[in-house]
Amino acid sequence: MSISEAKITEDMKAAMKAKDKVALTTLRALKAAFKNAAIDKAGPDGVLDEGEMTAIIRKQIKQRLDSISQFEANDRPDLAETEKLELAVLEGYLPAALSAEEVEAIVTDAIAEVGATGKQDMGKVMKAAQEKSAGRADGKVLSQMVMQKLNQL
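Structure for GatB/YqeY domain-containing protein, as requested:
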């Protein structure tokens, strides 16, 4: 699925009509995060590409996951439930995740591309692998695969 600010705006209108407060609040926060990142990138007329938008959505998801664990640790199931609902809304905007085989192929290509010879090349390989995955693979999964492959060299 392609991510765009227009799609987010359409979904906000639908959430307003459906009186879905959770979706509306989540989408407003997401749209604000997009706008702030665009301004940081190129001033008031800045525009984000799809990869940058995906990265922002992943960051928002990570924030929700952190909040859920904090709320559950502090015996606040009501707040944790709200975060879980927001998390579900955000996950709907992520592109389909890559399979383990696809991640492995990307990492193998990245290692060959940068000419990695060992663990010292982890940063170069990660950068190339992240560019190739275009936000469709979790950073943690990529990192583990890169480390595993580099250990085999």
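DSSP finds seven helices and no strands in the chain.
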